[in-house]
Amino acid sequence: MTARVAVIGAGWAGLAAAVRLAGAGVSVAVLEMAPQPGGRARSLTDEGGERLDNGQHILIGAYTRTLALMEEVGADPQTMLSRTPLMLRRADGSGIEMPRGAPVTAFVRGVASARGWTWRDKASLLATAAGWAARGFRCAPTTPVAALCEGLSARVRAELIDPLCVAALNTPASEASAAVMLRVLRDALFGGRGAADLLLPRRPLSELLPEPAATWLLRQGAELRCTARVASLESTGPGWRVGGERFDAVVLAASALEAARLTAGVAPAWSRAAAALRYEPIVTVYLDAPGCQLPCAMTTLDEGPEAPAQFAFDHGLLGGVAGRSAWVVSGARTWVERGLESCAAAVLRQAQPLLPGATLRRVLAEKRATFRCTPGLVRPPAQVAPRLWAAGDYIDGPYPATLEGAVRAGETAAAQLLAQLRDGPTRAGPKERPSPAPTA
């Protein structure tokens, strides 16, 4: 008899798990509380009927599992993503660009050719990066990112480390985990040819994975139930009852807060670990400035007390609406507290030198965009109980909250469940165990 598995949540982690399970011949039911799949990386339709993403996302060449999953469900990364070498360029032309080639050689060439940097700036980065490499890109779990920068010049910190940290970890460098940041730097800058390439969406986020994956799953005979919030999760010996419906196993791919609610009665320690996570918001401000464009598709900005955004993305240069841009405020806790109207007004003022006469199209806030990736953070493990695995970008692992982290977590949960299903039924009930500390 074919095993039945419930996947609770149709974000990128849940979809990745569902594709792997359905591809292995398992009967899959995906239960999503929202009206559409995609989780926090989806598209919305505005009042004018145009699609705007819930937040601007970027991918990099090191997102190998995400790119492979897109291809598998029929979304072509070559046409849907603009791929260029990693470039952190400011409006005045200063900044760094990584050329193509072998990772170490490309990094040295990129640093040597950085515009606006003195030879002291460049030497400080090369020497510091050599130290990171010599230590295997590892450090104590309690180390903050700021400690990685002690040998760097102020300009390199401001124009490279700070933007990379807030883009990858959505946590200010003064508060962010150095262990996780080093893993990101290792895999991106030194992970192989093309790993550091910048991949910017040419199409709305929902078209990159959520919609193609949903179509693929339906063709495989899987169920996709939207607006279906799960009320309860109960153990039934070798299987689980999900909202009263019997399944052989479960992938819990809901948000950490929703997962904590569902597991409070079956795995209290895991539930407490998930509920203890703290979050950083991200605000995306969409502007329209017909006849204007930014210096490049992704422009690095000078953040300040009245300049909230760290990056601006020109949708016209990416094949979208000409004159439209997305201004991203990461680590936006202070600005959310001040109010979205205040944030949008500040971004409009920040944009005027580059986009004279720009007007506000829409402001969107994801108040729990990512967990705060701080030193020594304890994240919940993937296994909750026998035949109950959690999947999400918040699960214990070496990566921050990214699309790639979500996809990898989903695929890992699916692989573990498939192994347990092959091993046959187990009578063991939910087993409590403490959450391990994350490894670098």
From TrEMBL:
Record domain Amine oxidase: where: 13-418
Protein name in the entry: Squalene-associated FAD-dependent desaturase
UniProt cross-references to InterPro entries, sorted A to Z: Amino_oxidase, FAD/NAD-bd_sf, SQase_HpnE, Zeta_carotene_desat/Oxidored
Organism: Rubrivivax gelatinosus (Rhodocyclus gelatinosus)
Gene3D superfamilies, A to Z: FAD/NAD(P)-binding domain (3.50.50.60)
Region entry Disordered, spans: 420-440
Pfam families given in the database record: Amino_oxidase (PF01593)
GO MF annotations in UniProt: oxidoreductase activity
